[in-house]
Amino acid sequence: QVQLVESGGGLVQAGGSLRLSCAASGRTFSSYNMGWFRQAPGKERDFVAFINWNGRTTYYTDSVKGRFIISRDNVQNTVYLQMNSLKPEDTAVYYCAAGTLISRGPDGYRYWGQGTQVTVSS
Q1: How many Å apart are CA 90 and CA 11, to the nearest integer?
Q2: Rounded to an integer, what distance in angstroms lies between the CA atom of residue 100 and that of residue 20?
Q3: How far is CA 32 from CA 29, 50, 96, 114, in A?
Q4: Mean pLDDT in residue range 73-91
Q5: Which of 37, 33, 77, 76 has its CA nearest to residue 55?
Q6: Beta carbons within 8 Å of 39's beta carbon, 6+ residues apart
Q7: Closest to 23 (Cα-Cα) out of 73, 84, 93
């Protein structure tokens, strides 16, 4: 069992930065691949970024490449999403998720956090 708690969301102007954190409980965090997803009102939950269990492999959706960076600290049981050059279209609730698959789809993840709101004003 893994429990995930996101933090770091907020309101920021376009061009600004935020760093999201996802703190995990449990001793098995380092064995899980982690993903960040986002969901805007009235839209599906979309893949944002992936990092494998040891942090050596990352993937990003095209719209955030070069702006967002996913990382993890397996000692602190935390995964991060550094978001730079934010745009209004990045506005969404951001979720972290844990799973054992390499997946860009929500079905590939077993555990989810409650989400944190990110709002980017123009």
Answers
A1: 11
A2: 22
A3: 6, 11, 12, 18
A4: 97
A5: 33
A6: 45, 46, 92, 93, 95, 115
A7: 73
